[in-house]
Model the fold of this input.
Amino acid sequence: MLVFTHSACLQHDPGVGHPEHPGRLQTVIAAVESLAIRVREAPRATRAQLARAHTQQLIDQVQAASQRAPTRIDADTAMSEKSLEAAERAAGSGIAALDAVLKGETRRAFCAVRPPGHHATRERAMGFCLFNSIAVLTHEALQRGFSKIAVIDFDVHHGNGTQDIFWQEPRVLYVSSHQSPLYPGTGMAKETGANSNVCNAPLATGTGSQAFRAVWREQLLPAIDAFEPELLLLSAGFDAHYLDPLAGLELHEADFAWLTEQLVDLADRHARGRIISMLEGGYSLQALKLCTLAHLRALQGSVNP
Done:
């Protein structure tokens, strides 16, 4: 197993008091180091790679905003001097992980990066997100010849940006569990994509382990299994943990371990074990540490290398 990260991702500074602060990634990296997983440096995504997921107008907007840093794109989404490089490295981490998978260097990889990405739509940066890293990775995988890719999002907030970008793409199955109502207000069960390639499972505030696992066991995991993906890409948000200050689900780190184990089984069945996971949300440092460790241990499994 490999982990991809970069020091620039620690230098993205949304400002004092912002929940998406550098300490999040420091906590994640400490968890990685405690497991002695091999770490590689994330490259920058190129403008051409970003442009597969985003409009040129959005890319230009983020680049122009970086010249005015510190600045805000919206009330939640801020940029400092290093934010542009951090976002480019975050998107580039997935592409480097894909390269490693395709070369046979590993079957599973984790991208320990920030800012997160799954709220960024084709045309808009929002919700702490500048570029949609998992979408950039998905487009790269399509470009490399994959024809069935499952993007699996278990962040507590719905990945509206990822859904937006792949709404009409039958080669991509987007699957999400998330709290509802909650920011960004999307992800209703009736949102199924232009090709029935979107599967949303909104969860009520207070949903705990038993109901969470039942939704995945009875609805979402079977949808992935039926799709028979050649590659699994995970938007790994850990803010559904009961300690998280920004949401109201009641999950525990064992639930993330359980779900990861189920996804590993599916990857072994359909995708030659190939999984690339990318950090999204998670705003309690204690929960982030526990969930990262649980997720990585489950991803490691018996992977060799």
Notes: The chain has one domain: 2-300.
